[in-house]
Design the sequence.
């Protein structure tokens, strides 16, 4: 019996030693930092599953402890839907919203979301980052050919989520206004993106703003020309 217990203990210690060794999946470095998988080009865990709340923080290498900490908190957010309390996972920034998602030099290439709520949207527009400038012309006639629509997105219930979530997604899919991407491709192909993997078309609505400004300027020039002609006719009649 004692031999069996001793054998199990030795095997457990060996397994633990391999797990926390430099070649193991989990290890502790000399500074008592716990590493899951590897880093800097080495293999890492495919999945890291935490059942419960988890806090992530980071101190810049050239910073000091205290308010220089940057952290995020994985937790559950509760709110009322139809009188019922609903819980949703949420990633919250800490210390006065001092948290960034990417930055100017290391941005995310693409982000997908059903809804985005923000105080403002700022587009990178520094002329030093641009080249091949060409004036936008002929926008008025092209914009007059576009048909705006009110529409609903096609909703398909997701069997893997609860009924409340499906109801929220269905409600968010209704009462939209915009254009058909395929229509815009005729005159504004540079404002339409095609995701070949998903075979879906998307529209750069912000890119329509310069076209609207150019069309307004073109229309204003026509109005000024008509005003000059009207004035000339009035002067002729007055004579």
Sequence:
């Amino acid at each position: 019996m004692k031999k069996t217990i001793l054998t199990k203990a030795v095997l457990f210690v060996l397994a633990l030693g391999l797990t926390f060794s430099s070649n193991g999946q989990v290890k502790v470095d000399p500074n008592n930092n716990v590493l899951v998988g590897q880093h800097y080009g080495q293999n890492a865990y495919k999945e890291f599953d935490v059942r419960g709340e988890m806090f992530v923080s980071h101190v810049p290498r050239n910073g000091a402890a205290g308010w220089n900490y940057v952290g995020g908190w994985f937790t559950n957010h509760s709110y009322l839907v139809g009188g019922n309390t609903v819980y949703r996972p949420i990633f919250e920034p800490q210390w006065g919203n001092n948290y960034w998602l990417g930055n100017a030099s290391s941005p995310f290439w693409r982000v997908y979301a059903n809804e985005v709520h923000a105080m403002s949207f700022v587009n990178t527009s520094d002329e030093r980052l641009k080249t091949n400038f060409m004036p936008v012309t002929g926008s008025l006639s092209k914009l007059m050919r576009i048909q705006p629509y009110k529409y609903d997105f096609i909703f398909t219930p997701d069997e893997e989520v609860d009924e409340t979530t499906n109801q929220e997604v269905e409600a968010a899919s209704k009462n939209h206004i915009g254009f058909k991407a395929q229509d815009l491709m005729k005159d504004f192909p540079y404002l339409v993106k095609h995701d070949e993997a998903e075979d879906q078309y998307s529209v750069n609505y912000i890119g329509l703003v310069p076209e609207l400004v150019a069309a307004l300027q073109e229309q204003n020039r026509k109005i000024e020309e008509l005003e000059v002609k009207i004035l000339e006719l009035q002067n002729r009649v007055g004579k």
